[in-house]
Amino acid sequence: MKDPIRWTLNHMPKSEDRELSIMALDNVTKARSFHGSFPQYSITPLAKLDGMAKYLGLGGVYVKDESYRFGLNAFKVLGGSFAMARYIAKEMGRDVSDMTYDYLTSEAFRKEFGQATFFTATDGNHGRGVAWAANKLGQKAVVHMPKGSSQSRFDNIAKEGAQVTIEEVNYDDCVRMAAAEAEQTEHGVIVQDTAWDGYEEIPSWIMQGYGTMASEAAEQLRQCEVNRPTHVFVQAGVGSLAGAVVGYFTNLYPNNPPKFVVMEAAAADCLYKGAVAGDGKPRIVTGDLQTIMAGLACGEPNTLSWDILRNHVSAFVSCPDWVSAKGMRMLGVPVKGDPVVISGESGAVGMGVLDAIMSDDTYKDLREALELDRFSQVLMFSTEGNTDPLKFRRVIWDGEYPTTDSPQRAY
Hints:
This protein is α/β, with parallel strands linked by helices. About 40% of the residues lie in helices and about 15% in strands.
């Protein structure tokens, strides 16, 4: 028997909601303007899955496909690059709107600012984004990866000229290692999307960088004649992406926000555990955090994001690995007529969750609580493409992490 999806509705007490302003619309506008200054920038596609929506009994299903982002196969570069720009702007006493790609790659900038070393911990996508941005902007990058990290993800970071290692510790310990090294390095700074007491500014900038993706999606939905999504499904590791997406759409539709569903890997479900506890305090998950959803294998929540999520999320969902594998297969081999979305292990979990909620009466209570029906317009984010080719092939071709115990009858 496969492990069930676990879920809880949000019954936590509200806070003063101070962190919502991180994702104020003008902050996101600045981030999008910065990203737009890169010659490599283009808006990533929003896949309109009409066949899937009909199959699941929904009004619309829309998937933001981040496999096209800057040629890096994942969304993460949006956060790291914008945080770098804001850090440099602050060091120079300037506004981030001055930090265009042309200026940051100019001889004048090099003479004025010199070089910084950006340290980070990553399971792959974030580190690759930081390394790529540092490389493009003439800065240095040092990247630490947790044990079990894939060789292909390591190689992709090394190709960008970063100093990169795979350590014998988990992700959260790699974060501590990177922070300690940054402190001992002249012009060293840690660029991490998890926040803790005393380290909150840079994570807030990373979240604003992720806002570019949410802003594009909102615009693309309007082009599809969807004025607002009724539901937004977003995955979480430390919760920075989730906090950014929830914060942006709450600010965009202050009087009528969508219902938000946050999904985590069962092996690292710190937000879900916090929601189950119900007192509004974050929880931590320790250990090796073994899951195919490497990008979500984070056990310590971003405190800034947690505050946004506890105030605005409808449901928290803890997902076994089969959920992500099912989502990868559904997006990669879609209903006839729908576009193909090549989605990696951390990108496809939303599709797997949505399918389970709509197709399996085990989750009927959650379906009804979320009011998911034929009028619902659902937005989700495929945050990475095929970033680990061997794992991708094992799931899609070899049927790893099956969702059934016996052959199904033919339809």
